[in-house]
Write a structure and sequence with these properties.
Elements: H1 2-18, E1 39-43, E2 56-68, E3 72-80, E4 82-84, E5 93-94, E6 102-106, E7 109-111, E8 118-119, E9 121-127, E10 130-135, E11 138-142, E12 148-160, E13 170-171, E14 174-180
Antiparallel strand pairs: 1-2, 2-12, 3-10, 3-11, 3-14, 4-5, 4-13, 6-8, 6-12, 7-11, 9-10
Length: about 190
């Protein structure tokens, strides 16, 4: 029995005493990330003075900044009538001239498929609670390599047809919407 106990103790000592700790080890994992489409729109001048008018059509240009990590984007514009006193309760307004559409001119690019950079009106929405008309969606391509990062000049037109329209300031809102093409979104 003593010999058996001695054999077990010797085995335990040999097993625990012989095992040496590693002095260095490492493992490697391969990681990846997919950069997805991204777009941002800002306005260069938040308040635009359209000048003075008695009667007739007049236009105003708003400069938007569009930055995206792809060359081709869908663009759409929207605009409100001009309201006296910036009030929805105003009885006097200057309407949008829908016949002109909206001229959209990127600094370095244009509407594709022989487009003329003019987007016709095609629907309605609201901007800051004011009723607005929006345009069709146009697809625009940048002349830049791999991205769309530039100013976009957008011209809106109104038509003051009432020679007895009360004097004063009339104001409204203009919008430019940039959208990633569905083919640029994973899983579509």
């Amino acid at each position: 029995m003593r010999a058996k106990m001695l054999a077990i103790l010797t085995a335990l000592v040999l097993i625990s005493g012989v095992a040496l700790a590693d002095l260095r080890d490492e493992a490697t994992a391969h990681v990846y990330v997919e950069v997805v489409a991204n777009v941002a729109v800002g306005v260069e001048t938040a308040v635009v003075d359209l000048g003075s008018i008695q009667t007739g059509q007049f236009s105003g240009e708003v400069v938007f900044r569009v930055d995206a990590n792809q060359e081709t984007l869908d663009l759409q514009a929207a605009v409100t009538d001009l309201w006296k006193g910036d009030s929805l309760d105003a009885e006097a307004t200057i309407p949008i001239y829908a016949g002109a559409g909206v001229l959209v001119e990127p600094e370095n690019g244009n509407e594709i498929q022989a487009g003329d950079n003019v987007l016709a009106f095609g629907g309605t929405e609201e901007i800051n609670g004011f009723p607005a008309m929006n345009t069709e969606i146009g697809t625009f391509e940048s002349g830049q390599a791999g991205h769309f990062s530039q100013n976009v000049y957008v011209t809106f037109t109104w038509d003051q047809v009432d020679p007895e329209l009360p004097m004063g300031e009339y104001s409204g809102f203009c919008l430019l919407r940039a959208m990633i093409l569905p083919t640029a979104t994973p899983g579509s």
